[in-house]
Each structure stands twice: as C-alpha cells, then as structure tokens.
Amino acid sequence: MKEPSFWYSKRGIRATCLAPLGWVYAKLTAARLSRSTPHHLEIPVVCVGNINAGGTGKTPTVIALAQRLRDLGHVPHVVSRGHGGNLAGPVNVDPAKHRADQVGDEPLLISAFCEVWVSKDRATGGQAAQEGGATIILLDDGFQNPSLHQDLKLVVVDAARGFGNGYCIPAGPLREPVGAGLARADVLITIGDTDAQDSFSAPTPAKPHRFSAALVPLQTGMDWTTGTYIAFAGIGQPDKFFDTLKDLGATLIRTEALADHEPLSAAFMSRLERDALAQGAQVVTTEKDAARLPRHWRGKVLSLPVRLEFQDEDALRVLLKRFPAP
C-alpha cells in the first residue's frame, strides 16, 4: 500500500478527522509495550527500528551494522519477521532456495551479508539465531515488538521527511508518538544529505544520541551516463531511487513507482521488457526490488546497490564495542 501524501504535509482536514483513530492506535501500542515480558537471550540484541511506518532506511542500516560488527570479530545474525513472506519460521534464509514470497525481499537481500532468520515470533527467532551460532543479533524492525529483550535500541528516520505531520496511523505516519518513541531509544540515526541533516529537528527533551548517515551508490564501474533506462522501484520512497540514478547521469525514459514490497507480476515485467526492447533501453531497479524478481528475470534487470556511510565512523565503532566479541 502506498502511503497517503497528507502524512508528510501540513495538517489538513483529512489528518485532523483521522486524529482520534491515531490516538487510539498510539494507546494500543503503549498498552502492548507496557504489558510485555521480554524474553532474554544470552547474547546481545541490537534493535534497528523506526517510529515512522514505511521506508526510512532500516535495511541498509542493518547491512552496515552487520558489516561493522563482523569487522569487530562478531558473528552477527539478523532476525526479521519477513514482511511479505508466508513462512512463519523460524527459518534460516537460504537465497539459493527461498523466494521473496516465502521469506520477504529484505531478508533475501540481507542474507548476502550475514545469516538471517525469519520468524513471526521474534523471541523464537532470536533463540534460533543464538543456537545457530550468532554472537550478536540485529533485530530488524522490532522497535514496537516487545517479545525480545533489546540491549541497544536504534531508531532510523529519513532526515528530509522527519516524522511527517506528527500524527499516528492512520492520521499520519507514526507508529507511536515521537516523544514516547525517542524516550525509549538509545540512538537516533538520521539518513540524508547535508541539507536534510541541517534542517532535521526532533522534539525535546526526548533526544537520544544522534548519528548522521547518508546512502551512497556503490562504485561498481558501471557508467550510467551511457544508454537509456526504464526504472522501477517498490520501496518506501521510489522517487529517491530515480533521483539517485539521475544524479549519476542516467537518462530515464520512464519511471514506475510501485508500492513498498509490491509483488512483481509476470505481466508487469513482460511489459517493461517489451517496452525496453522497443526503445533500446535497459530496465533498472533497486537491490531490494531485485530480490523479488523471479530467477529468470534477474539476468535481464540491472540493479543499483547503495551503502550507508556514517558521518562519524569512530563514534559508531565505540558504540558497537560496548558489546565485546567472544
């Protein structure tokens, strides 16, 4: 489902009318969190979550942290609920065997960097990861899920869009009020360019330690200035992907913005292939969307990989070293 545009605009009549439902949503979230008895593991659990619904950059954050934890001597495993997948788990994701409709596109993407467990029950998934040899767990999108004890809570937000109109679902993009969420968080990671970082603001006094980061295209030797492209993206903010391609010099003759995690039908892909052949263009998409492609399409579609770079790598290393590798 695509998010309503009024979530990230000034509060209007639609948001105001839906505000009472947002209040109820917030109260239900708070009640669920307060009644929880989290399961404690023998290894640390680092939660990477958000307060906003939709894409904020959690997946590249999880990948970046997994790489840095591995550099520190850890064996990180990721635990995910596998949004878009139909397996209840716990299941150890195998990209050679599993499909996106089974385990979700994000777990498939992350599995190229470390072990991933999909489990609708996060506590059971965490236990499976611990027994599977993990020395530390990255809990993907579990900030509002109280079933597993979290030793470090990281909240990720898009610096340019911030927390939208400040209302909870369905009146706005928030899963819980910003003040309540940030009061529970240990770290706030804001993702965006310099202008977005400078304009970002969060409510006081609930201000956890902040890290600034930016998504940067991975240098693969690809010359995007040659040829023409048809681009599609089913992520939280498809336009950001299209803008990145343009910044690299790509000529886009058409763009297709899909809903986040939207299935890629055979009819849709065949139409793109037919149009690309007719216009001498190449089809290109995101890494996450590429994970949802049927296998016979993967050699026909280019993907643009991006990686998260932190402004203060030394401070991030200090933060992660609070959990010494065994």
Give a quick summary of the entry:
The protein is of the alpha/beta class.
Please provide a written account of the structure:
The protein has 326 residues and is of the alpha/beta class. The protein has two domains: 5-216 and 309-320, Rossmann fold; 228-304. Helix content is 32%, strand content 21%. The protein contains eleven helices and 13 strands. It has a nine-stranded mixed sheet with strand order 3-4-2-5-1-6-7-8-13, sandwiched between helices. The N and C termini lie far apart (43 Å). The model has no long low-confidence stretch (mean pLDDT 89).
Q: What percent of residues adopt helix (DSSP H or I)?
A: 25-40%
Count of DSSP E strands? 13
Number of discrete domains: 2
* Overall pLDDT score: 89
Main sheet overview: 9 strands, mixed
Biggest sheet, strands in spatial order? 3-4-2-5-1-6-7-8-13
Structural class: alpha/beta
CATH level 1 name of the largest domain: Alpha Beta
Gyration radius over CA: 20 Å
End-to-end Cα distance, whole Å, is 43 Å
Would you tell me which CATH topology of the largest domain applies?
Answer: Rossmann fold
- CATH architecture assignment of the largest domain: 3-Layer(aba) Sandwich
Low-confidence stretches: none
Specify the oligomeric state: single chain
Sketch the topology as an H/E string, one letter per element.
Answer: HEHEEHHEHEEHEHEEHEHEHEEH
- Tell me the overall shape: globular
- Helix count, per DSSP? 11
User: In percent terms, what proportion of residues is strand?
Assistant: 15-25%
